[in-house]
Specification:
The complex is a heterodimer of chains A (433) and B (82). Chain A is α/β, with parallel strands linked by helices. Chain A contains twelve helices and 23 strands. By secondary structure, chain B is mainly beta.
């Protein structure tokens, strides 16, 4: 069917996400002689960990992989938002305001992770950002010079973000890790096995030595008063309030699984289920990096490489050698997850009038325990707004064990014209398959 | 050093570095709130990476664009509903 606004691309493999996993997958698959298209919603490749404006500012490992991607011959489309996926390896995206259809033999899902943003009183106020959110905005040019900033969250992301804020001239007032001191100590001691990670942690801490770094401390509430954010911290035993300009807070990372769920991949405990070849439960769909629950850039690079080689049909050789490396990264991820598990008190912060669905302004009191995500949607509109339940779905899953609703298209808001062009594409492919 | 571009925010011109995201440019220009929620509360960017949809603004007449995913462009017309 002719549609002037749409364009179609064909490739052997389409990679969704241009972070470390997606880059490694594209490099591996291209190296194996396959044609590859990479789609990413951001203006430049690199994902969250290698988000940049100036490539020269990145660490050498990031520059090396981005250079490899440049030389790989893969077609990298940045600013391409995936909105739909059809049966078989077909992806629909909005690119430069128009529909883009990509038809491939295999899809590699390298969609990364998002922050777990848990509701607490005041969390919707302007100036309350995520931890990774602060990092992303900083890398995109946010000016924090002289601003009073607090960082409160959990896990290995806290220290680099605090260090980056301090380096950018923020007046860093507090770095609070929710995990108890004994768990953090045990994790730090376990780092002797990976001295490079230990040294990295020490270097980050050294960059904001004069700032309080408190373990077993979390944000209880925040209020806006006269243009300031008044943050109430607690250790469970004592609480106190301090003013800041920006509060950066989150409860760690959760895999981004919308596209995987849309195409019907099995997702267990929030993680895309993959076999040893990084293949999901849906034929011709692979997943690598954060979506599989294996956290961190090193794991993403290894899994991306394996997925790229396997999708290209070259899995028996090089990919085999990488599997031991992958196992080591998985052990590290498991140790980190255990050390930084979320304390139950984080659940107890939400009050009846606390908004849980930010898109539709649904308060906690409207949500009944025992509801599924679908029931909550129908009764309250929670999860029906612009973000499609990305924030409240993950939060309610954690807070009250609510099952996530099935994913609907479009995965992100787009124009009617783009939707119409893509719908015809997917209908056609359904007819053809 | 990258140059600057001129964008229009609610009709007012604003010179910003050419290599920043629109979300960063708006925050740096003193806009903490980018939009009003359905209940009328002010909201601003949270995730910085396109997930939370709190930084939605109108760009060149197109509503609901995520400012964190948009590089600034010369002549870009931005409307904040905040």
């Amino acid at each position: 069917m002719p549609d002037a606004g749409a364009s179609t691309m064909r490739a052997d493999i389409v990679v969704v996400g241009a972070g470390p996993a997606g880059i490694a997958a594209a490099v591996a698959a291209s190296g194996a002689g396959r044609t590859v298209v990479v789609l990413d919603a951001s203006p430049r490749p690199g994902g969250q960990v290698w988000r940049h404006r100036d490539r020269a500012s990145l660490p050498s490992v990031a520059r090396m992989w981005l250079d490899r991607l440049d030389r790989s011959g893969a077609t990298v489309l940045c600013g391409a938002q995936v909105v739909d996926a059809g049966p078989g390896a077909r992806i629909g995206a909005e690119y430069q305001g128009r529909a883009l259809k990509v038809e491939a033999q295999a899809v590699i899902l390298a969609t990364g992770a998002q922050e777990l943003l848990l509701p607490f009183p005041g969390w919707t106020l302007p100036g309350v950002l995520g931890v990774g959110g602060a990092q992303a905005l900083l890398k995109a040019g946010m000016d924090v010079r002289g601003k009073r900033v607090a960082v409160a969250g959990t896990g290995p992301l806290l220290l680099p973000v605090a260090a980056a804020l301090a380096k950018a001239g923020a007046d860093l007032r507090m770095v609070a890790e929710q995990a108890p001191p004994e768990d953090v100590r045990r994790f730090a001691v376990s780092l002797w096995r990976t001295p490079r990670r230990l040294l990295q942690g020490v270097a980050y801490r050294a960059s904001f030595l004069s700032v309080r770094y408190r373990w077993g401390t979390w944000v209880r509430r925040v209020a806006e008063m006269g243009g300031e954010l008044i943050v109430t911290y607690t250790t469970g035993r004592s609480s106190w309030a301090e003013p800041v300009d920006l509060l950066c807070t989150a409860a760690g990372l959760v895999p981004s699984t919308e596209l995987a769920r849309l195409v019907g991949c099995e997702v267990r405990e929030g993680q895309v289920v993959v076999d040893g070849r990084q293949q999901t439960t849906v034929p011709s769909y692979y997943a690598a990096g954060e979506p599989t629950g294996d956290t961190g850039m090193e794991a993403a690079l290894v899994e991306g490489t394996i997925a790229g080689l396997e999708a290209a049909g070259r899995g028996s050789g090089e990919a085999g050698k990488l599997k031991a490396e992958r196992a080591a990264h998985r052990r590290f991820a498991a140790r980190a997850a255990a050390a930084f598990r979320l304390r139950p008190e984080l659940r107890e912060r939400v009050e009846p009038d606390t908004i849980v669905c930010r898109c539709e302004d649904v308060p906690m009191s409207a949500i009944r325990h025992g509801w599924s995500g679908r029931q909550a949607k129908l009764a309250t509109r929670a999860g029906m707004g612009s973000c499609q339940g990305r924030t409240c779905g993950a939060a309610l899953e954690y807070l009250v064990g609510m099952a996530r609703d099935t994913v609907r298209t479009p995965l992100a808001p787009t124009s009617i014209g783009v939707l119409a062009d893509l719908a015809s594409h997917l209908d056609e492919s359904q007819g053809a398959s | 050093m990258p140059g600057t571009v001129r964008i229009l925010v609610n009709g007012r011109s604003c010179d910003v570095p050419a290599d920043v995201s629109l979300a960063a440019a708006l925050l740096n220009a003193g806009h903490a709130a980018f939009r009003r929620s359905v209940a009328g509360e002010p909201r601003g960017p949270v995730c910085g990476m396109g997930t939370c949809h709190e930084c939605r603004v109108t760009i060149d007449g197109v509503m609901g664009r995520r400012a964190c995913l948009e590089p600034v462009r010369e002549g870009m017309q931005v409307v904040l509903d905040a």
